[in-house]
């Protein structure tokens, strides 16, 4: 086994060295060795990719579709993305110049940050938020401005945005909105989006809209900010959640042509082009599978209702998720705000795994995230174990 030359030790990208690994994945790995644990840690749909979508990928392989596609993705896929955005949100994007097919929404976010940001730029991110965003801003050389939304129902209010913009000044280049949100499942009302759009327009900045969970909403319709600010919005989405395609790694960027021309360069430097079979599957999903998320949505909503009722029956508070598949739960008072200690103790003693809320930024401190993208059997058993554990708690037990 080779050992790095001593004089090369520590010779790494300094910005990368400033950030740690994913707090979600790190904690999941840490508790994975607990015997008989039920992990509700990862945002991983337990359902399968629809059969007709898989068949499209198989046909691509059998047809020897094994050569490089266009760097922005096949034109068939980009047309399918354009058609989907038109049907679902009445958005108009030119498949030739305004859409990039990416290797998952993760690559879409990465390509966006790396092609948009310069040292000295600032990016506003409401917290709690998906932990991926934070290190990517740092790696891009920009400054991360976190805004704690925990006292505002986990929504960035126009007033809060205005206040932070006045404080941080014109160096703010973008605000990132992820809704329905990870880790809270909270969806932004249309009137809030409209009010935020007014502030964003006034301050001459980008909005990066990560709408990966837009197909999984319960009792509300998703309203994209790109409807109001198409000239300022970098829209990010993908197939991972809507069609249970996390492993296929298919996402996309939709934005004005001047932005996508630059983002395409970064995308191409990173990945050259997406996988052809995955693109064929995504094309099928967005062409003939627009109803596929409906059945999944019903299942998730049933699970949401069960988990929410169970959590509240335990006397714990949580944000009511109107989308995605997460329960963001206030930890028991006996633990104060030490969500890491609670999550570790819960895993070891009750054998239930969740992600400490502080992994999602300052706004998540004192909470724990459970994913209900799990089987009914596991959810019922996990809630039973959690209930028994919470009932057994006394202050003396955790001091």
Describe the structure.
It comes from Secundilactobacillus paracollinoides. This is Aminotransferase. InterPro entries: Aminotransferase_I/II_large, AspAT/PAT-like, NHTrfase_class1_PyrdxlP-BS, PyrdxlP-dep_Trfase, PyrdxlP-dep_Trfase_major, PyrdxlP-dep_Trfase_small. Residues 36-386 form the Aminotransferase class I/classII large domain. One of its GO terms (molecular function) is pyridoxal phosphate binding. With 399 residues, the protein is an alpha/beta fold. It folds into two domains: 6-48 and 292-392, Aspartate Aminotransferase, domain 1 (Alpha-Beta Complex), CATH 3.90.1150.10; 64-288, Type I PLP-dependent aspartate aminotransferase-like (Major domain) (Aspartate Aminotransferase, domain 2, 3-Layer(aba) Sandwich), CATH 3.40.640.10. 42% of the residues lie in helices and 14% in strands. The chain contains 14 helices and twelve strands. The protein has helices spanning 14-17, 23-31, 51-62, 75-89, 104-116, 133-139, 158-168, 190-202, 257-271, 276-288, 292-313, 339-350, 376-392, 395-398, and strands spanning 38-39, 99-102, 122-127, 143-148, 172-178, 206-210, 233-238, 251-254, 326-330, 352-353, 355-356, 367-371. α4 (75-89) packs parallel to α10 (276-288). It is globular and about 60 Å long.
Tag the structure with descriptive keywords:
399 residues, seven-stranded mixed β-sheet, 42% helix, Aspartate Aminotransferase, domain 2, Aspartate Aminotransferase, domain 1, three-stranded antiparallel β-sheet, 2 domains, globular, alpha/beta
The first-level CATH class name of the largest domain: Alpha Beta
Instruction: Provide the gyration radius in Å.
Output: 21 Å
Shape: globular
Q: Strand-residue fraction?
A: 5-15%
In the predicted model, the low-confidence regions spanning at least 5 consecutive residues are none
- Count of extended strands: 12
What's the SSE pattern?
HHEHHEHEHEHEHEEEHHHEHEEEHH
* First-residue to last-residue Cα separation: 45 Å
Provide the CATH topology of the largest domain: Aspartate Aminotransferase, domain 2
Task: Supply the helix-strand structural class.
Answer: alpha/beta
Summarize the amount of helix as a percent range. 40-55%
Oligomer: single chain
Q: Major sheet: order of its strands?
A: 2-8-7-6-5-3-4
Average of pLDDT? 95
Name given to the CATH architecture of the largest domain: 3-Layer(aba) Sandwich
The CATH superfamily of the largest domain is Type I PLP-dependent aspartate aminotransferase-like (Major domain)
Number of helical stretches of at least 4 residues: 14
Q: Give a short account of the largest sheet.
A: 7 strands, mixed
What is the number of domains? Answer: 2
Pfam families: Aminotran_1_2
Family: Belongs to the class-I pyridoxal-phosphate-dependent aminotransferase family.
Keywords: Aminotransferase, Pyridoxal phosphate, Transferase
Domain Aminotransferase class I/classII large: 36-386
